[in-house]
Amino acid sequence: MVGPAPRQKDHVAARDFQVSIPAILLTVFLSIAGMELFAWWAHKYIMHGWGWGWHRDHHEPHDNVLEKNDLYAVTFGTIVFAMFAVGYVWSDLLWWIAFGITCYGLIYTFVHDGLVHQRYFRWVPKKGYAKRLVQAHKLHHATIGKEGGVSFGFVLARDPAKLKAELKRQKEAGIATVRESAGA
After folding, report:
1. Residue 169: CB atoms within 10 Å
2. Which keywords accompany this UniProt record (predicted)?
3. Are 18 and 82 contained in the same domain?
């Protein structure tokens, strides 16, 4: 044999229990659901708060292939990569949480970057939930600047009529500046 024998994951002293298939499925599902909640919070309070410097160009017209906003994907991807590495060595459960977060990232990339912003493909849905997702995110982009706004999540979308009413309320209260084309 050439070189050292492959390292056996199971021989690491700090390892926790093996995870059952139902626990894996539940962990992945809860990680995906939890990421939608985290994404809503991070989008509203980080990206539209102290992290606006990275997020601003996402809300402005441009012809660039990449945006500063993509640095969020790099940052969160690095964290998840570390979770995979630590999970591989010490915790099956952490590895599956990282897998669930990665699944959410793929869903986000398809829905937000692909469907809504058409960075990868061109398809405009005419009906159903896909149309609702696009409408909700377009209403999110109806505000000028980081103040106010609606629809900070990425996969769960409220009724566009309710979002328009909320934008109108924010505009009248002076909370948000709304683009005229938004109809609010």
Report:
1. 14
2. Carotenoid biosynthesis, Membrane, Oxidoreductase, Transmembrane, Transmembrane helix
3. yes
